[in-house]
Amino acid sequence: MKIKKFTADSMSEAMNLVKKELGPNAVILYTKNVKKKGMLSLFKNKKVIEVFAALDQGSDTAPQQVIKADLKEPKATPVMAEHNNQPIHQGPVKAVEWTSPLPEAIREIHAQLEAEGLHSDLVHPLTQTMLRTWYRSPHPLTDAELKEVLKAYIDKQLESIVFNGLRKETKILNLVGPTGVGKTTTAAKIASKVVLDEGKKVGFITTDTYRIAAIEQLKTYAKILSLPVEVVYSRSDFERALTTLEGYDLIIVDTAGRNYQQRQYIDEIQTLIPFNEQAMETYLVLSATAKSEDIQRISNQFDTLPIEGYVFTKLDETSSVSSLLNLVLNNKIGVSYVTNGQDVPDDIVEADKQAFVNQWIEGVWRERSS
């Protein structure tokens, strides 16, 4: 990343030079007012503008919006606010190559974020935010301070996205997702929590009639918990099962795990389950070990279903959750539960936004240090 310092008598002149020298991809890191240095201190009381700008030479992105934002809102910079009404003499502008290299800590974090596959529309503004904070600080930022910068940025991105477990008014919970992600085990874990912690009556419905082993697995869990299981093959079967379990507080629906890159299987679910039922929630269950592009593709296939939340499984099998962060921010869908092992009912917790962000940050630091 190329970083340069520009000195000018006005903000507009400085910005014009930034665009001329670094092009439209340039990003403003920091601006401040400084005393102008001159021969015999003739300019002792003269103020000029210093602008630090950067260009990521390895990036194909062109974040023109960032530089435009700085052009439109120079008052947002605290050091500028004090001098908004003071006329500044128009004079020549000079550019000075910033001699310090990109701070090593930020370079390492930037490289790790890219290595983890975090979307570039997150990596670049995160790096810019770290650089701005770094150059505004009177001292090099510590790891703890850099973590806080990342946390504050991601917290802001997640601000409108809800993380929580099962809603109290929910009567029917559908678990959908591809094969091998642990839907049946997740169904048993949620049922166990509701039965043991809340003392509620829970029943199962399974639509997974393609695999005998899947039905038997659910029946085994149901037997241990003394819960009923209804096996359905059609919409009429499903409606009959709902009638049979009408007196239960919660009905958990375990759907078949199929190759959901083929749209026909999504259509089968829609044919089978009446998604217009009141007090119904649908969670998409995904493995934390999957590649970012794969889980996004799977999620896209389910976009015709009313997905209210994600369940991320196998968090104990990965050190990075950047792919999950990509998914949540891209789709604006929150997380309901996360699982971190095979034990029923222990290895499942209701999703917590701060815990999720902290796990992401710690994963970045752990891999960065390895």
UniProtKB/TrEMBL annotation:
GO terms for molecular function: GTP binding; GTPase activity; signal recognition particle binding. Transmembrane segments: none annotated. The lineage of its organism: Bacteria, Bacillati, Bacillota, Bacilli, Bacillales. It holds the Pfam family SRP54. This is Flagellar biosynthesis protein FlhF. The keyword Iron does not apply. Residues 170-362 form the SRP54-type proteins GTP-binding domain. SUPFAM superfamilies: P-loop containing nucleoside triphosphate hydrolases. It is found in: Cell membrane. Necessary for flagellar biosynthesis. May be involved in translocation of the flagellum. InterPro entries: AAA+_ATPase, FlhF__GTPase_dom, P-loop_NTPase, SRP54_GTPase_dom. The gene is flhF. GO terms for biological process: bacterial-type flagellum organization; protein transport; SRP-dependent cotranslational protein targeting to membrane. It comes from the Bacteria. It is a peripheral membrane protein. PANTHER family: FLAGELLAR BIOSYNTHESIS PROTEIN FLHF, SIGNAL RECOGNITION PARTICLE RECEPTOR SUBUNIT ALPHA. Keywords: Bacterial flagellum biogenesis, Bacterial flagellum protein export, Cell membrane, Cell projection, Cilium, Flagellum, GTP-binding, Membrane, Nucleotide-binding, Protein transport, Transport. Residues 169-308 form the AAA+ ATPase domain. Coiled coil: none annotated. Belongs to the GTP-binding SRP family. SMART domains: AAA, SRP54. GO terms for cellular component: plasma membrane.
